[in-house]
Design a protein that fits this description.
The protein is an alpha/beta fold. The protein has one domain: Aldolase class I (TIM Barrel), CATH 3.20.20. Helices cover 38% and strands 30% of the residues. It contains 11 helices and 12 strands. The chain is globular.
Length: 244
Amino acid sequence: MIIPAFDFLEGKSVRLYQGNYLDKKFYNIDLYEHLKNYKKKGVEIIHLVDLSGTKNVQNRQLTLLKDIIFATQIPIQIGGGIRTEKDINILFELGFKRVVIGSSVITNKIEVKKWLKIYGPNKIVLALDIKIINNIKKISINGWLKETNYTLEEIVDFFSSESLKHVLCTDISRDGTLNGPNIILYEEIAKKFKNIKFQASGGVSKLSDIASLKKTGVNSVIIGRSLLEKRFTIQEALECWQNE
């Protein structure tokens, strides 16, 4: 499916280039009009990232998040600075459908495994952000500032015992660049882990990118900047996915 994405920093819609807070572009959009249009067109889920919460959990944009939940009936998955069970409970109580767990997947593996058991695999998305070096898919954390020694394959295997279902995989080198997605990456992981519903993220700039990603076997494509900059419409994106 197509998952439109919105990142928010200090209440404003923004896109970062390769996760760099110093290299950002703000968008003056009417979010609520976008949500209304997406609902009408049949969008099934929205991806939100609270970048203020990512930097400092004390700055989580709760008022904005409440407003967004109130404004739409489209289910929303939310990421950004989710590090404790309390964080998860707050977001589920607000009405979010899924939470997206990033750095804690590495720094707090046992706890994340427990969350998968408590909330169930339909409620948790693991966000694995990778840098590919000599075809080794190394995971980066802490806003992509710290490279770990863990590979994507190791982490998916580790959590599979808890019936892991949703994985958002981003090739950092493609994120926010509009340079096209890493098709080979998604072909490899979709083929290797057939039980995982992968969400591809990063680099989509044209409709042919969506068609190529559908062929890899991923479950979903997250699209942010291309929709914000009107490179194609949500209607065109949905039709491209359905018709491929």
